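Protein Record: Sequence and Backbone Structure Tokens
======================================================

Structure line: whole-number tokens from a learned vocabulary of local backbone shapes, matched to residues.

Purpose: to set a sequence beside its fold so the mapping can be learned.

___
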Amino acid sequence: MKRLKLSASLLGLVCLSGAALAQTAIEPNASSQTQTNTPSQPAAPCQSAEYRQMDFWVGKWDLTWQAADGTTWSGQNVIARSPFGNCVITENFDGAPGNTLKGMSVSTYSKPHGQWRQTWVDNQGGYFSLHGGLQDDGRFILEMDRLNDKGPFLRMVFENIKPNSLTWRWQGKGEAEAEWADRWVINYRRRE
């Protein structure tokens, strides 16, 4: 019985509170009539400076590199802000006519981790997950996530970054203490 009285009392209190709120909503007092209650717009995502750190790469690029036999090969790379607004950068690489490699990547700044993340896939079954970002010396470095202790040490380095050109290096090493060595160096020239 006590439980029933307590439940009825709580129900009454809830109903009274609800009625008071409804009354306030229907009949605002004079002081609230002068205030404008517009809902605040959430801040647009991906607006901080970190999200602009890879803007140097956005554009249409003509590429050249030295093949193993010493000849110069060429290709193209188109880097764009994606339909996801300022949050994602997409890459579409085409190694033709010198190379059959075609691939794409998506890159974004991960605010919780304080670094950039990139995922690369290609027509040769390649998949790379990389992380990193802007270095104090002006280079932009993304290092491959190693899945285990036997995984390779690989990274990409963007350097000599200018408005219409840059150098990209794919580097590797056999063990953690070893020096990084170039495996592929591409010279970028902006097309437009």
Observations:
- Residues 49-190 form a domain with the Lipocalin fold (CATH 2.40.128.20).
